[in-house]
Amino acid sequence: MNKNGKVYGSKEFNNDCKLKERIEENGYNTYASFSWKNNGKQMFVALNGKGGTRKGQRTRRKNTTAHFLPMVVDTQIKDLFY
């Protein structure tokens, strides 16, 4: 996520790639930019209704669009992808 709150893919690891993971009380995870804030407020990774990303400036920790459900991956299935 860049300083404007836009989520993008990067070929190389940089400060925009650093995220803070938080496990919420409801069992979901949220991910906030480690490097950037908007007016002192954290910017979160979030998805809109069509599956696209929302700008970090429009997100808050309590928004359900910023909640991600962690999944346990079976080791046999994991081997197919790595």
TrEMBL record:
<dbReference type="InterPro" id="IPR008996">
    <property type="entry name" value="IL1/FGF"/>
</dbReference>
<dbReference type="Pfam" id="PF00167">
    <property type="entry name" value="FGF"/>
</dbReference>
<dbReference type="GO" id="GO:0008083">
    <property type="term" value="F:growth factor activity"/>
</dbReference>
<comment type="similarity">
    <text>Belongs to the heparin-binding growth factors family.</text>
</comment>
<dbReference type="InterPro" id="IPR002209">
    <property type="entry name" value="Fibroblast_GF_fam"/>
</dbReference>
<protein>
    <submittedName>
        <fullName>Fibroblast growth factor 10</fullName>
    </submittedName>
</protein>
